[in-house]
Design brief:
The chain has a domain of 137 residues. With 228 residues, it is α+β, with helices and mostly antiparallel strands. The chain is built from 5 helices and 9 strands. The longest helix is centred in the N-terminal third of the chain and has 21 residues.
């Protein structure tokens, strides 16, 4: 099964990178995939569109991982892998995103298909989202909405697996921590929009005319909206 696994940039330090490939121990955590539930919820989408929605849900969960890991590089990371079907359990929680699955345990030695990382200039926007999500300052809610919009307008950059060790880094740490309040405010705003807000459990569709992700380490020209 092809999975889109949310991660932090620091977690990729353990990847074994050679001249031809890269392997990684996929952590036993929540991930996203093209599931029957996702296909049913988006009957008009083709395979590419379904992959894109699963990918965006993983990007959102990466933001939550960054929030819960003080000191990590404040950039979203999505790792695309292929794992055995029996290593994955499909989420049965009715409140879960329709693409959500869970790895039953760590899967060592998994070949990386692709790595997507926010461009380094996204770091201040990520930090803004995390800090505003726990702020009681006047105007924090409006500022949080604006910060989330800046993040959702960004494309993650594609890296070939053998380039994963050279993906961007940034020295500004994120000090926010993941808690109930963060989940309620950020998850609610980024997944639940109505009139400019996205429906619960459904990631934002890619806007037409947006920038294509580009391979920065191995130039390949513009890529389509496909997640890998």
């Amino acid at each position: 099964m092809r999975l889109y696994v949310p991660a932090t940039l620091d977690e990729l330090d353990s990847a074994a990178v050679t001249a031809t490939a890269a392997t990684w121990t996929v952590p036993g955590r929540q991930a996203h995939a093209v599931t029957a539930a996702l296909s049913s919820s988006l009957p008009d989408e083709d395979d590419e569109g379904l992959e894109w929605h699963a990918f965006l849900a993983a990007a959102h969960d990466s933001l939550l991982l960054v929030a819960g890991s003080p000191g990590v590089v404040p950039l979203r990371v999505v790792v695309t892998v292929e794992v055995p079907d029996d290593a994955v359990v499909v989420a049965r929680d009715t409140d879960a995103a329709p693409s959500q699955v869970r790895l039953t345990g760590d899967v060592p030695g998994t070949v990386l298909v692709a790595v997507h990382v926010d461009e380094p200039t996204a770091s201040p926007d990520v930090v803004d989202v995390l800090e505003l999500a726990v702020s009681d300052a006047p105007g924090a809610d409006a500022a949080l909405d604006a910060a989330i919009q800046r993040i959702t307008d960004r494309d993650l950059l594609w890296y070939a697996p053998r380039s994963s060790a050279r993906s961007p880094a940034h020295d500004r740490p994120c000090r926010a921590t993941l808690n109930v309040r963060f989940w309620a405010r950020v998850r609610g705003r980024s997944e639940s929009r109505d009139g400019g807000r996205i429906s619960p459990g459904r990631p934002a569709p890619r806007r037409g005319g947006g920038r294509s992700s580009r391979a920065r380490c191995r130039p390949t020209g513009p890529r389509r909206r496909r997640a890998t």
